[in-house]
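Inverse folding, one chain.
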């Protein structure tokens, strides 16, 4: 109860602070305030009422609080001090467009919450017993995966070296499909090995020798994972879910409740990261800050970081609204770029662009922006395709998908549980968009972390079972 009350106190203090700094008209102020009230209700429900452990809702709350409240409110305040109020993507500030954006977000919030709470009541937990063949084969399966990981590393060694030395800003020479298969499928094998190793440890009664063999295999997988997934070879949005999953696996008490998960994400994304970013970019020396601490709270300095493209999610909903007013709705055609991401453009020449590219092209064509591959939030995907109806449908789909993965999170299968937790952390990337990248990256992870390891296990167990049956028959 102490942690819950502490979190709510911090949440309310931050909320009061950002509204006290907001310099906007009463209409725009109220549009943000209405979304803050809705999100605060979600937070109270999640922390004090919800009985399920749901890291999905934790991520949803923190994402929306940061990208649809803190960031845009800071941006609005910055706009008021500019002679020509434009954002980092050259899109002009228009108050009515911000109010429309807040209206769409409110519709999305309410629809999502109603279907999330309603569908969650249908969850039924089913536990499956581990087969004897699976238990007997566990060590062999684990070292088979070790060999596969070694083979993957050897076959991709030149690619790994290229990723280690290539700066993040430099585009890779490999195709998008090639990168997806390597980085999101094959390079996730070591993580599946870690999960299976821990699962086998729990499912087997081991003597000391076998215990150390299992432990050695898990350590090998961790070494492989660090080699393949580190800050030099992967972006932050891809590393976050992986390392948070490792914390969840090895130290579950750290993230085993709604308040713990929400507090961790809230503190790291809304308090710690902006504070570090501000302190590393502050224009004042230590002596100046010591003599005049009020310099730390200068609005322009605090808001400056939120004007970057890292926080353009809210703005890009407005870009999509304007794009639709110019060119009309897509009526689902644009969504095919995500749902059929695995079809290469060399085969499908008329394949639609991802929504992020559409947003980028819009600000390039109309506002002379130089960059065309921008983020596009999940909410905007629905509006781009079907208008307000699309926003409602996307909210329903998200709620049902989350409830489905809640059943995986409650499963006794550690692989399923790990995929569900990974998806919960991946939600930040999926909600920020664009949907094509968020969806395709998760599907690749689903194959690398769950589907392919499961197929290997089933194939191995089938062969092992056949051998046992033949030996018994003889």
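Residues assigned per position:
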């Amino acid at each position: 109860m102490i942690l819950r009350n502490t979190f709510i106190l911090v949440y309310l203090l931050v909320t009061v602070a950002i509204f006290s700094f907001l310099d906007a008209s009463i209409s725009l102020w109220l549009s943000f305030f209405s979304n803050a009230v809705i999100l605060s209700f979600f937070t109270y429900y999640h922390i004090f009422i919800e009985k399920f452990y749901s890291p999905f809702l934790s991520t949803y709350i923190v994402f929306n609080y940061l990208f649809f409240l803190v960031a845009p409110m800071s941006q609005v305040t910055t706009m008021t001090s500019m002679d020509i109020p434009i954002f980092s993507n050259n899109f002009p500030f228009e108050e009515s467009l911000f109010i429309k954006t807040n209206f769409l977000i409110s519709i999305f919030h309410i629809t999502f919450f109603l279907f999330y709470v309603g569908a969650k009541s249908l969850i039924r937990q089913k536990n499956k017993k581990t087969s004897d063949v699976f238990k007997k084969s566990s060590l062999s399966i684990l070292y088979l995966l070790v060999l596969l990981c070694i083979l993957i590393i050897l076959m991709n060694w030149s690619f790994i070296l290229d990723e280690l030395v290539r700066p993040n800003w430099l585009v890779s020479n490999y195709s998008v499909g090639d990168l997806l298969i390597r980085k999101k499928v094959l390079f996730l094998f070591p993580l599946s090995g870690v999960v299976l190793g821990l699962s086998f440890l729990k499912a087997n009664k081991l003597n000391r020798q076998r215990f150390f063999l299992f432990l050695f295999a898990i350590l090998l997988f961790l070494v492989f994972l660090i080699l393949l997934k580190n800050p030099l070879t992967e972006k932050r949005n891809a590393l976050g879910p992986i390392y948070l999953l490792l914390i969840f696996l090895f130290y579950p008490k750290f993230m085993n409740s709604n308040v713990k998960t929400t507090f961790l994400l809230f503190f790291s994304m809304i308090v710690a990261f902006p504070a570090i970013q501000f302190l590393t970019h502050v224009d004042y020396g230590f002596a100046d800050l010591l003599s005049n601490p009020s310099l730390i709270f200068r609005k322009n300095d605090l808001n400056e970081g939120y004007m970057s493209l890292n926080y353009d999610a809210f703005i890009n909903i407005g870009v999509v609204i304007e794009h639709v007013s110019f060119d009309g709705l897509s009526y689902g055609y644009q969504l095919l770029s995500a749902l059929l991401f695995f079809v290469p453009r060399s085969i499908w020449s008329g394949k639609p662009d991802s929504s992020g590219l559409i947003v980028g092209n819009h600000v390039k064509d109309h506002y002379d922006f130089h960059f065309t591959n921008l983020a596009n939030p999940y909410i905007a995907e629905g509006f781009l395709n079907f208008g307000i109806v699309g926003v409602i449908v996307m909210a329903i789909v998200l709620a049902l998908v989350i409830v489905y993965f809640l059943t995986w999170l409650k499963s006794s299968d550690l692989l399923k549980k790990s995929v569900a937790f990974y998806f919960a952390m991946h939600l930040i990337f999926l909600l920020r968009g664009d949907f094509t990248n968020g969806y395709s990256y998760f599907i690749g992870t689903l194959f690398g972390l769950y589907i392919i390891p499961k197929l290997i296990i089933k194939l191995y167990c089938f062969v092992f079972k056949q051998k046992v049956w033949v030996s018994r028959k003889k």
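The chain has a mean pLDDT of 84. The radius of gyration is 24 Å.
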